[in-house]
Amino acid sequence: MKTLVITLALAVGFYSCQNSGSSESSTSAASTTQVGGQEAVQDDVSDPDVVKVAVGSPDHTTLVTAIKAADLTTSLANAGPFTVFAPTNAAFDALPHGTVESLLQPENKSQLENILQHHVMTSALSADFFQDGQTMGMVDGTNVTFTVNGDEVLVDGAKILGSVKASNGWVHVVDKVIIPQ
């Protein structure tokens, strides 16, 4: 038993001496490791999630900036399912002057988060699912109402311009920012 303890002590001491010089390199390697959730996974084979759909669209740079500022990237990149009503850059530009800049300030993060959550449902619904007069709940806890007239679908007055199927739901491009009541 005494031999086992001495052997174990020597092995620990030898291992510590061998790694004492490499702790600096392992620390620097750890600091360069990419941090993030599902959104940090590099996958060029699978269908993109709702965040990657938005990131890949030149018409949604303001939305992507807002999602990052509200720390919602990881949540929306997860399995879902999600239905996201994605306002275009032009929709954000139509807000009163200074609104977007104000919402992107750290002190307004909760307000921005609330507005963005008002654009998300926890289900994967294609545009043809929605019916005229239908009311549905959003992630922020409030409801929206759909208006359907022929092929035209509106959610609280924001027209769905197009839709993209994502790996974790649907992204419906809309022409207005949907402000919770």
From TrEMBL:
Residue spans of biased composition, Low complexity class: 20-33
GO cellular component, one term: extracellular space
Annotated region described as Disordered, given as residue ranges: 19-44
Domain of life: Bacteria
PROSITE patterns, sorted: FAS1, PROKAR_LIPOPROTEIN
Alphabetized Gene3D superfamilies for the sequence: FAS1 domain (2.30.180.10)
Domain FAS1: 47-178
Protein name: Fasciclin
Annotated source species: Jiulongibacter sediminis
